Every structure is written in structure tokens, then in C-alpha cells.
Amino acid sequence: MANRMPTLRQLQIFLALAEHKNISKVAEALHISQPSVSIQLKNLTEVLELQLYHVNGRSIELTEAGEAALSTAREMFFGLNKLQIELDNLKGIKSGVLKLGVVSTAKYFLPILLGQFCKRYPLIDVELNVGNRQKIIQRFNQNKDDYYVFSQCPDSDNLIAEPFLDNPLVVVAPVNHELTQKMPISLNRLSHYPFLLRELGSSTRRCIDDFCKLHKLKLKAKMTIESNEAIKHSVASDLGLSILSSHTLDYMQEVSLARLDVEHFPIQSHWYLARTKNRNQTVLAELFYQYLQEEGLTLLQKKIAANRKNGVSIGKGVR
User: Fold this and answer.
1) Was domain 8-74 assigned CATH 3.30.565.10?
2) In this structure, what DSSP letter does residue 101 have?
3) pTM for this one?
4) Do 94-166+270-307 and 8-74 have the same topology in CATH?
5) pLDDT in tens, 85-133
6) How large is the greatest C-alpha to C-alpha distance in the chain, in angstroms?
7) Fewer CB atoms inside 10 A, N or C side of the chain?
8) pLDDT tens digits for 57-91?
9) The CATH homologous superfamily of the domain defined by 169-268
10) What's the rounded Cα separation, in Å, for the pair 160 and 276?
């Protein structure tokens, strides 16, 4: 290796390249120009004296040297983060960034928890990363966040998780659907109607598939849609029925949907607060966990109950 050493900025850009596999996406994520990204990566390659990646079409593939550099860069930034944590702990600082990775359905209730938490600790910033299950599992495997919110946790020896909130899955229909006049509804009757379902691999879809297998129910899957919002609007347009987390309905007012009273529903599941075993807990992470246990969950449950009582989930057709 040359006498020069890689800079932290070069390694930061290289980490972003390994994640995004595309120089333009790296530039967008780090808010710098594409030429700057290319120059920094070229300088890093010259310092290390080995090719770190190859361009394959529009994507980037790391070489063996690149994988080694990636591993070391992650260790370096993890060590720097650990140092900052220890210094903040010594100072008793209640500021900084709380990093959360949550699956998309959790976005309906998590802001309620975070709103009061941020009021309590105004110097704290929250980095909220929302994505599908695959994306959040990837973040978990890369140890990127302080906490993760899953409805089905990944299978990992590096996992610490505990349930903190019910996540009932309910059958929804257009508010004027014929089934709204025939409740309660037998499970078998659902097989006569088209369904709009979440994509394979999503936590909601996995719960539905397990439920159907248990009860020997075969649904007519008319469409697969990766967005809860798109599913709700499609159901309201009478394209089919669907099965969604009740939380996707508890905070909405504009879409005309009805919850159906169906045999063996709702499907019972839970939300889990998870973290990796090998990540040092920051002061902020400990504060958030303490807040969640002492008042956050009570606040959220009261908000859900008030919404249902006051008609936020009933008014304008949602019932």
C-alpha cells in the first residue's frame, strides 16, 4: 500500500457504493456531485493499489479486494460510533441521532410514538428508515440502526426482540360491498371473491399464507400490490377484497372501506421491537426503550382507542 492512508470521506463514499451499487445513487444519497464521487473512489483505489470494483452495466460489483476494504471500513466506522457512544455516556448527553429501521406498515403508528418522544428530548434527531421487509432485514444484517420494528422477525442468532403491540389483520371491502350486509361471514365464503394481496415475502403476506394453510382456505389472488395505500384505494374502487393490518385503517379518513366480520378473523400477530446483540446501546436508544415502556405504549393505545371511538376509522365509510 502507498504511504498515504484512505480518508474517512473516501471510505464513507465506498460504503455507500457497496450499499447502492450505483454512482449516481451514491451522489444522491450523500448530496454530492457524481464527478466528486468518481474522483474520491479513484483516489481510494490509488491509495489501496488494487481494483475495488467493476462496473457491470448499471450496477457495481465489488472485487475480492473491495470486499476486504468494505469489511475494514465497516469496522472502522463501527469503532468510531462506539467511541462516540462511550463519550456521550460519560457526558450524560441526551442529544444526537436515534436510528430506527421499520417495515412500511409500522409508519402508520410509529410517528405517534416519536412525536411525544421528540418533544420530551428536543435535542434528539431521529433517522427513520422505512422500507419493505427485505430492505429492513438488510439493514439489520448490516447493523445500521439502534432498533428495528418487525411484525415477523428475521431468523438470526444476532437478534434480541420482544413484542410490544398487537397487529391484528382484518378483511376489508368497499363500504357498499354486498358482504357488509351479510355479516358475520363464514371463512369459506371468502373463497368466492377476488383478493388484492401484498407481495410475497412481506410480513402481512406471510401471515396470510400461514393462516390459509392452517384453515385450508384458498383465496382468489387477483392482484399483488406492494403498497398498503395502493391496496386500500384499489379495494375502495371495488377491484377486490383484501387483508390488511388494522393499523393501516386506524389513522385514515379519506378512503371508503369497511372491516368485515369474518370467521376466525382478525388474524392475530404482533409488532416486535428488535435490535442486534452486537451493537452497543446508545444513551438515546436506552432513553427510547425506557420511554416506550413507561408511557409510549400507553399513549399509542389511547390514541388508537380514541380514533376508533371518535370515528377516524369509522367516519367517511371506514368501519
Assistant:
1) no
2) E
3) 0.68
4) no
5) 667 667 665 667 899 999 988 988 898 889 888 888 887 889 999 998 9
6) 78
7) N
8) 888 899 999 999 998 998 888 778 777 766 766 76
9) Periplasmic binding protein-like II (3.40.190.10)
10) 6
Q: What is the CATH number of domain 94-166+270-307?
A: 3.40.190.10
Q: How many CA atoms lie within 13 A of 253 on its CB side?
A: 5
**DSSP-assigned letter for residue 185:** B
Segments making up each domain of the chain, as ranges: 8-74, 94-166+270-307, 169-268
| Distance of alpha carbon 159 from alpha carbon 146, whole angstroms | 12
Cα distance between residue 52 and residue 45, in whole Å:
6
* Residue 60 amino acid letter: I
In this structure, the dihedral spanned by the alpha carbons of residues 141, 146, 148 and 154, taken in order and rounded to 10 degrees, is 30
Query: 3: pLDDT confidence band, cut at 50, 70 and 90?
Result: low
Q: Are 242 and 172 in contact (CB under 8 A)?
A: yes
Q: Three-class SS of residue 230? A: helix
